[in-house]
Design a protein that fits this description.
The complex is a heterodimer of chains A (291) and B (358). With 291 residues, chain A is mainly alpha-helical. Helices cover 70% and strands 3% of the residues of chain A. The mean pLDDT of chain A is 83. In chain B, α3 crosses α12, α9 crosses α11 and α12 crosses α13. The model of chain B has no long low-confidence stretch (mean pLDDT 83).
Chain lengths: 291, 358
C-alpha cells in the first residue's frame, strides 16, 4: 500500500514537471529555441493568480482564468519584444537571453514591497481535503493536478490534430521555410506558441501553488523539468508528459527507498544515463545534420 | 590610423601585434604590480577576486567561446578545485603541489563530463553539464569526511617554500602570477594547431571533421583544459574566501560564470577579463547607487538580479560580441578614422536551420 501511495504522489509531482516540460517542448518544437525562463513564467503565473485572489478579491475560478489569460498575453508580448529580433541567431544566444529574462523576472518580483520576498499560501477552495479510497489516501490537491493535466493534454492533442491553427503550428515546426512558402504566417504562429507555452506555465504554477507555496524561487523547479523534457525527447509532446511522469515517480521512489540525498539528484542521474544511452530520448527522432 | 604590413606568418601569429600594444599592456602590468601601494586593502581584495574570476572565465572561454560547447555546470569544476585544494592542504601537502593536483583532478573530472559531449550537442549538452553540476554539488554536500558537508570547511593559509603568504598583498601577487601564466598559456594555445582546431569545431563541426580534425579527441581536450583552468581558479577562490561550503558552487554560480563570458564577449580573451570586472564591479556600483535611488527601489533585495538580467538581455539583443565587441567597434572607428561604416559589424540574419533534420 505504501508503494502505491508513493506512486500516487510521484505521479502528481510528475504531472507538474510534465506541464513545465510541455512548455519547453512547445517552444522548442515551434521555434527550435529553448526557454530557460519557463520556471519563472510559472512563478509569475502563480503570483498573478495570488494577486488577483488576495488583492483584487476575485473569486477563485475567475482569477484562475484571468491569470492564465494574462500570462498568455505576456508570452506573446515577450516573443514580440525580445525573441523575434534575434531569431536566426545561434541557439546559445537565445538560451542566454531567456536566462536573463528569468533573472529579471525574479528580481522584479522580489522588489515588489511586502509581497515578493515572502512565501504565500494560495487560497484554493480544495485545500487540505482528502479522500479515503480502499486504504489509499487521495489528497484532493494531487487529484486536481492529475485531472487537470490529463484534460490539458487532451485539449492540446485535439488542438494540434484537428484545428487549423494547430496543424499550421505542426507544419511550421517541421520546416519553417516551407511553411512560410505555403502561406502560413510563421511569425504570428511563433508568437502564439509562446503565448500558449506561457499559459501552460501559468496553469502549472497555479496547480503547484497549493502543494508547495508561492514564492520567488518556485521557478527553480523548472530546472527539474529539463530532465523531463530530455528523457521524453525534446521535440515530442507525449514525450514531455511521459518524461515528467518518469522523473516524478523515480524521484519520489528514490526519496523513499534510497539514502538521503538521492532524491535531489535522481532526476539528473536519470537524464545523464538517458543522454549516454539514448540521446534522443524515448520519443525523439533521429537527428543527423546533412551537409 | 595604424597600418600593419604583414610579410610573414610568424608576424601574423605574434602575440604582441605592434608597439602600441606592448606599451599599453606593459603599462597595465606595471599598474597591477604597484597596485598594493596605490589602493587600499578592500580594493586589493576586489582586484584579487577579479583575477580569480578571470582565470575561471578563461577556462569557460576556451570551452564556450572557442570550442562552442556551452556548459551550464562549470561551478562544479570550481568546486572540485576548491575542495581538492582544501583537502590536500589539510593533510599537509605543500601549496604548489596541491594546486597542480587541484587542476589535474578538475581536468580528469572534465574528461568524464566531456564524454556525453561526444554524443550530444547544443541544448542537450547544456542540460547534461547542468545535471552534472547538480550531482557534484550534492556529492560535495554529502561526502562529509572530506568536504565537511553543508556546514562547510576552513581552508588553511598559503605557504610557499616555508614562507607564510597570508591573504593580503602576498596572495594578490600569487593570483597575479598565476593569472598572467594562464593568460599567456591560453594565448599560446589559441595560436597553436590545437586552438585552431577548437575554433574550427566551433564554426562547423562537419567541415572540421572533413579537414581531418579528430572531433572526439579535441572536444575532450577542450573540456580537460577548461576544467583545469577553472579548477585552478577554484583553488585560489578557496584560499581567498578562507571558508568554503557546497552552496557556493551551485547552479547560480555556473550561470554567473556563463554571464561573465557572455557579457565580456564570447570568443575573445579580453572578454574573460572584462566580464570578470563586470561581475565584481556590478554589486559595488549597485550598492553605491543605492543612495541616489528612491528607497523603494534602492533597498529592494532583488535589484542586483534584475540588473544582471537587464544587462544580459541588453548585451544579447544589442551587442552580441559583448563588452569586447563594443571596444572593438570604438577602436576600429579610430583606427580607420574617416572610413568607419555603420554596417561593418552587422550581424548576418539567417533562417533558423533545424538541428533535427529528417
Amino acid at each position: 500500500m505504501a508503494f502505491f501511495q508513493l506512486l500516487l504522489s510521484g505521479i502528481s509531482v510528475g504531472c507538474i514537471y510534465a506541464l513545465i516540460a510541455l512548455g519547453f517542448v512547445l517552444i522548442y518544437k515551434a521555434t527550435e529555441t529553448v526557454n530557460f525562463a519557463q520556471g519563472e513564467l510559472m512563478m509569475l503565473g502563480a503570483f498573478v493568480g495570488l494577486a488577483l485572489m488576495q488583492v483584487a478579491q476575485l473569486p477563485f475560478l475567475v482569477s484562475v482564468v484571468l491569470a492564465i489569460a494574462a500570462m498568455a498575453a505576456f508570452g506573446v508580448l515577450l516573443e514580440r519584444v525580445v525573441i523575434r529580433p534575434i531569431l536566426g541567431q545561434p541557439q546559445f544566444t537565445i538560451v542566454m537571453l531567456t536566462i536573463g529574462i528569468g533573472y529579471m523576472a525574479r528580481g522584479l518580483v522580489t522588489m515588489v514591497p511586502g509581497y515578493g520576498s515572502d512565501t504565500h499560501a494560495l487560497p484554493v477552495p480544495y485545500k487540505g481535503q482528502t479522500w479515503n479510497l480502499g486504504g489509499l489516501v487521495f489528497s484532493v490537491e494531487q487529484v486536481v493536478v492529475i485531472v487537470v493535466t490529463m484534460l490539458l493534454c487532451l485539449l492540446l492533442y485535439l488542438m494540434f490534430s484537428r484545428s487549423r491553427v494547430g496543424i499550421a503550428m505542426q507544419a511550421s515546426s517541421q520546416n519553417q521555410l516551407a511553411a512560410y512558402y505555403m502561406g502560413i504566417p510563421v511569425k504570428r504562429l511563433n508568437g502564439m506558441v509562446w503565448g500558449l507555452s506561457a499559459a501552460v506555465a501559468a496553469i502549472a504554477g497555479l496547480l503547484l501553488a497549493p502543494m508547495t507555496f508561492v514564492h520567488v524561487n518556485m521557478g527553480f523547479i523548472g530546472l527539474k523539468a529539463f530532465p523531463a523534457a530530455v528523457v521524453g525527447g525534446f521535440g515530442s509532446l507525449p514525450g514531455a508528459i511521459v518524461g515528467g511522469l518518469v522523473i516524478g515517480v523515480v524521484e519520489t521512489l528514490a526519496g523513499a527507498y534510497l539514502p538521503e540525498g538521492f532524491k535531489d539528484i535522481a532526476a539528473y542521474v536519470v537524464v545523464l544515463v538517458m543522454l549516454v544511452v539514448k540521446p534522443n530520448g524515448l520519443f525523439g527522432g533521429a537527428m543527423r545534420k546533412k551537409v | 590610423v595604424r597600418f600593419i604590413f604583414k610579410t610573414n606568418y610568424a608576424q601574423d601569429i605574434r602575440i604582441v601585434k605592434h608597439g602600441g600594444q606592448a606599451f599599453w599592456y606593459g603599462l597595465l602590468m606595471v599598474a597591477l604590480l604597484v597596485a598594493p601601494w596605490l589602493v587600499g586593502d578592500y580594493w586589493l581584495t576586489q582586484l584579487a577576486f577579479i583575477l580569480i574570476y578571470s582565470i575561471a572565465g578563461l577556462g569557460l572561454m576556451v570551452l564556450a567561446g572557442f570550442t562552442g560547447l556551452a556548459s551550464l555546470g562549470h561551478a562544479a569544476f570550481l568546486g572540485v578545485g576548491a575542495y581538492t585544494q582544501a583537502f590536500l592542504l589539510g593533510i599537509g601537502w605543500p601549496f604548489l603541489l596541491s594546486l597542480s593536483c587541484a587542476a589535474a583532478l578538475s581536468a580528469a573530472v572534465g574528461v568524464i563530463v566531456g564524454l556525453p559531449a561526444l554524443r550530444v550537442k547544443g541544448i542537450y549538452l547544456a542540460i547534461a553539464t547542468q545535471a552534472f553540476g547538480f550531482i557534484v554539488e550534492e556529492v560535495l554536500a554529502r561526502w562529509e569526511s572530506v568536504t565537511g558537508g553543508n556546514s562547510g570547511r576552513n581552508v588553511p593559509g598559503v605557504q610557499i617554500f616555508g614562507f607564510e603568504i597570508g591573504s593580503g598583498e602576498g596572495f594578490y601577487y600569487v593570483c597575479l602570477a598565476i593569472c598572467v601564466l594562464c593568460t599567456l598559456g591560453v594565448l599560446n594555445l589559441m595560436r597553436s594547431g590545437t586552438g585552431r582546431a577548437f575554433v574550427a569545431i566551433r564554426d562547423s563541426e562537419i567541415s572540421a571533421q572533413s579537414m581531418g580534425i579528430a572531433i572526439a579527441q579535441y572536444k575532450t581536450l577542450a573540456f580537460a583544459i577548461s576544467a583545469a583552468l577553472t579548477g585552478l581558479a577554484g583553488a585560489l577562490y578557496a584560499h581567498k574566501l578562507r571558508f568554503i561550503s557546497p552552496d557556493q558552487f551551485g547552479a547560480l554560480q555556473s550561470i554567473e560564470l556563463l554571464l561573465l563570458v557572455v557579457v565580456g564577449g564570447l570568443g575573445s580573451i579580453h572578454g574573460a577579463f572584462l566580464g570578470a570586472i563586470f561581475l565584481i564591479a556590478m554589486p559595488q556600483l549597485i550598492s553605491l547607487s543605492k543612495d541616489f535611488l528612491p528607497a523603494a527601489i534602492g533597498q529592494a533585495s532583488g535589484l542586483q538580479g534584475f540588473v544582471y538580467g537587464l544587462v544580459l538581455v541588453g548585451i544579447v539583443l544589442f551587442e552580441p560580441m559583448g563588452m569586447y565587441g563594443r571596444w572593438l567597434k570604438i577602436r576600429t572607428f579610430f583606427q580607420l578614422f574617416p572610413f568607419y561604416r555603420k554596417g561593418m559589424f552587422k550581424r548576418q540574419k539567417s533562417f533558423t536551420k533545424s538541428e533535427r533534420l529528417k
